[in-house]
Each structure stands twice: as structure tokens, then as C-alpha cells.
UniProtKB/TrEMBL annotation:
SUPFAM superfamilies: MFS general substrate transporter (SSF103473)
Subcellular location: Membrane
Domain Nodulin-like stretches: 23-116, 117-240
Cross-referenced InterPro entries: MFS_trans_sf, NFD4_C, Nodulin-like
Membrane topology: Multi-pass membrane protein
Entry keywords, A to Z: Membrane, Transmembrane, Transmembrane helix
Domain NFD4 C-terminal, residue spans: 325-444
Identification of the protein by name: Protein nuclear fusion defective 4
Transmembrane segments: 24-46, 87-109, 130-149, 155-173, 193-210, 216-240, 307-325, 331-351, 418-439
CC terms in the record's Gene Ontology section: membrane
Length: 445
């Protein structure tokens, strides 16, 4: 092997190591882990199998759903663990718990075991992107299980048991605290990631609607899954591109004079100067950053985030479910999904701005307590009980009792009408409380 081939191989190995250790690959790995972390949103797909296998009524099923939300959102322990242990250890613990939990559920619904008795800087953009991928993960897993298992929803439980655990284990050393300098194209790359996530969301929405309207063959599901996977792995191409650009920049010789002039006053030698590729790109970048900086100031003074969060909690989606019209379920799903995603993103951004980042992992998980608490109060105590009450009324009309049927099922608009009216009222009350927060923090948020 000649020296040129050896040098090329060493250079390739060095670049692969640089990419795997780089910040952009870490971000790509974060997307994959987060995409696999949204199994809680798939409960509605496989809950019917739990209901049919274990014979639960809606109240018991919703209590199980609340326990699921409790485990997914009450991460105070994981937040405290992250304060004193490396990130890879937290990921390994999460992987083991994820697999153990869902694997046991899969064993139960398949009858393989006896029935159980109980069951820094760009943080705003990063939070938005990560929470966006969490919201999309349920739809991603749906496409994966349709392509692999077709319509066997029991196997979905097994899939969400082993795949997220495997992803976390693969990238266990990738997610870590890094000390990196600011990237010149950082905002541009974040926007590219945003565009990819929007394209993924639109693709998933289109596939979901199409699969409800048209019967897909197995090859059709496989094709849909491939399209989704391409969009999921597209950030990897961006990560490799940025690492290549960084590598070329480091290798580029810099023969700079003592004083550098770029269409304006000279930069003294004692101050750091950035050498750009061309004068036109410097002007273009300067204009773009000027616009962004001023828009940020405008947005900070006129539209505080708590106010946006107040507007998100409108309750319109709940009212569309309570008083349905033709195709209103699709519209309600879009409104509720958008509101939920925006609410979570804004909530954790506001927490970071009010309390800082020193104990953010703990505060983040404390903030997530709202989800399981709300789930227990409204899902178990309100929605489930009103659903079962209406279902028992329908059984009585048929001259039947609860002991005569295995599954307690309610049919018709009345099943959820009162429940979602109550949810809409709760959202409106939450919006009023948030408006108080807007007034108290208007001077510094």
C-alpha cells in the first residue's frame, strides 16, 4: 500500500471520527432518540388490545394511560440523576426501563404471561425542534409498524419496547456536554432542520389521511416507511456537510495582513477578525444578522412568550369534538396537536428564561408534572367516568348489564360531549391564569 493510499485512509478515518464526535452528529442522534421517545402517544393504537385481552373498562384503561403519562413525564428522578451521573448512564437506564416495561405489556396482551393486576444559546430553537420530534414520533412509529407488521397492533408494543432502547444504546456516548465554539452557519442549519421537520410532519399527515381513505398494500406501507425514514435521516447529511466545511476551514491556509479591511474601517490586529470568502457574502450576512437581531428585539418587546401560550390555549379543538360537524375530527386533531406542541415548547422555554439553566434538567422534569396530573384529573376522573356512565346507559337501553359484556363500549356523539366541554372550560381558565403571568413578567420576558 503506497503512502498516498495510506494517507487517504487515515484522512477518511480521521473525518469519520470527527463527524461522530461532532456537535451536528450529536444533534442528529438526539433527533433519533427523541423520535423513539414518543411511544406514549401511541397508546390509542394498542389500547384496544389491552382492553380486549384484559377486559378493562374505560376508567381502568384511562388509569393505565395516566400511569403511562406519569412514567413518561415525571422525570424528576432522571433529572436529578443527570445532575450527578454522565449522560450515557441516564440513557442506558432509560433504555432498560423502556424495554422492560413494553416487553412485559407485550407478553401480557399476547397471553405469554398471566394477566397483570396493575399496571445555551439556541435553547429555544433546540427545545422547539426536540419537542416537535417527540410529537411526530407516534406517527413515525405507526408507519414503521405498518411496514413491518402491517396491521398487527399487538406487535407495535414489542416494537416500541426494543427500538427506542436500541437507538439510545447505539448513541449512548454521542449525547454529552460539549464545549464548542459558535458556528458561523448555526442559525442557517437550525432553519434547515426546521424545514426538514415541517416536511416530515406534512408527509406524515398526508400518509395518515391517505391510509384512512385508501387501502394500502404491504408494499405501499413499505414505500411510505422508506419516505419517512429518508426525511428522518436527512439531518445526518447536514451534519456531514457541516463537518466537511469545518474540516476544510481548518485546513485552509490563512495569510492575513496585519490589518484587514472589509468595506469599512480596518480591524486592528489585536482584535479577533473573521475572514470571509467574499465581500458580497459579508454584506449579505451582515444584512441578514441585522434583520434577525432587530426582529428579535421587536418580538421580545411586543409579543412575550407567555402571551403566545395564552393564545394557544383556546379550547377550539375541544369544542369541535364536543359539537362535531362533518370532517371536524380532522380539523380538531390539527388544532389540538398544534396547541399541544406549541404549549410544551413554550412552557419549557419560559421555565429556562424565568429560572435559568443551572438546574434546568430538574426544573424541566418538574414542569412535566403538569401533564400526568392533568391526565389523572381529566382523563381518569372526568372523561373516563363520563364515558362509562354513558356506555352503561346504552347497555340499559338494550336491556343488558355490565357483567353481560366483555368490553364496555359507548357509541355516538354523547360519549364525549360533556367531557370535552369541560376540557374547553379548563383550557379557557388556564388561558386566564397565563394572562396573569403575562402581566407579571411583561417587563423582562
Amino acid at each position: 500500500m503506497d503512502s498516498h493510499t495510506t494517507g487517504t485512509s487515515c484522512g477518511l478515518c480521521s473525518f469519520v471520527i470527527q463527524t461522530l464526535r461532532g456537535q451536528w452528529f450529536m444533534m442528529f442522534a438526539s433527533f433519533l432518540i427523541i423520535t423513539g421517545a414518543g411511544a406514549t402517544y401511541l397508546f390509542g393504537v394498542y389500547s384496544k388490545d389491552i382492553n380486549a385481552t384484559l377486559g378493562y373498562d374505560q376508567s381502568t384503561l384511562n388509569l393505565l394511560s395516566t400511569c403511562k403519562d406519569l412514567g413518561a413525564n415525571v422525570g424528576v428522578l432522571s433529572g436529578l440523576l443527570a445532575e450527578v451521573t454522565p449522560v450515557w448512564f441516564v440513557l442506558l437506564i432509560g433504555s432498560a426501563m423502556n424495554f422492560a416495561g413494553y416487553f412485559l405489556i407485550w407478553l401480557a396482551v399476547c397471553g405469554k404471561i398471566p394477566k397483570p393486576k396493575n399496571f445555551p444559546e439556541s435553547r429555544r430553537i433546540m427545545l422547539g425542534l426536540m419537542k416537535g420530534y417527540v410529537g411526530l414520533s407516534g406517527a413515525v412509529f405507526t408507519q414503521l409498524y405498518l411496514a413491518i407488521y402491517e396491521d398487527d397492533s399487538k406487535s407495535l408494543i414489542l416494537l416500541i419496547g426494543w427500538l427506542p432502547a436500541l437507538i439510545s444504546m447505539v448513541f449512548v456516548y454521542t449525547i454529552r456536554t460539549m464545549k464548542v465554539s459558535s458556528h458561523p452557519n448555526e442559525l442557517k442549519v437550525f432553519y434547515e432542520y426546521l424545514y426538514i421537520s415541517i416536511a416530515l410532519a406534512l408527509c406524515l399527515m398526508g400518509l395518515t389521511i391517505a391510509q384512512k381513505q385508501v387501502t394500502f398494500s404491504h408494499y405501499g406501507y413499505v414505500g411510505s416507511c422508506v419516505a419517512v425514514c429518508v426525511l428522518i435521516f436527512l439531518p445526518l447529511a447536514i451534519a456531514i456537510r457541516e463537518e466537511l466545511a469545518t474540516r476544510r476551514q481548518k485546513r485552509k491556509p490563512v495569510d492575513a495582513p496585519n490589518r484587514i479591511t472589509v468595506d469599512g474601517p480596518p480591524f486592528p490586529e489585536s482584535k479577533p477578525a473573521t475572514i470571509l470568502h467574499s465581500q458580497s457574502s459579508e454584506n449579505q450576512t451582515s444584512c441578514s444578522l441585522t434583520a434577525v437581531d432587530n426582529l428579535g428585539q421587536i418580538g421580545g418587546k411586543y409579543v412575550p412568550r407567555p402571551l403566545i401560550m395564552t393564545l394557544v390555549l383556546s379550547g377550539v379543538g375541544d369544542l369541535l369534538v364536543a359539537f362535531p360537524i362533518p370532517s371536524s375530527v380532522y380539523i380538531a386533531s390539527l388544532i389540538i396537536g398544534f396547541s399541544y406542541g406549541a404549549h410544551l415548547t413554550l412552557l419549557f422555554t419560559i421555565i429556562s428564561e424565568l429560572f435559568g439553566l443551572k438546574y434546568y434538567s430538574t426544573l424541566f422534569n418538574c414542569g412535566q408534572l403538569a401533564s400526568p396530573l392533568g391526565s389523572y384529573v381529566f382523563n381518569v376522573q372526568v372523561v373516563a367516568k363520563l364515558y362509562d356512565k354513558e356506555a352503561l346507559k346504552q347497555l340499559a337501553v338494550k336491556g343488558m348489564t355490565r357483567s353481560m359484556v366483555r368490553e364496555l363500549t359507548c357509541m355516538g356523539k354523547e360519549c364525549y360531549r360533556l367531557s370535552f366541554v369541560i376540557l374547553a372550560g379548563a383550557n379557557f381558565f388556564g388561558a386566564l391564569v397565563l394572562f396573569v403571568l403575562v402581566m407579571r413578567t411583561r417587563d423582562f420576558l
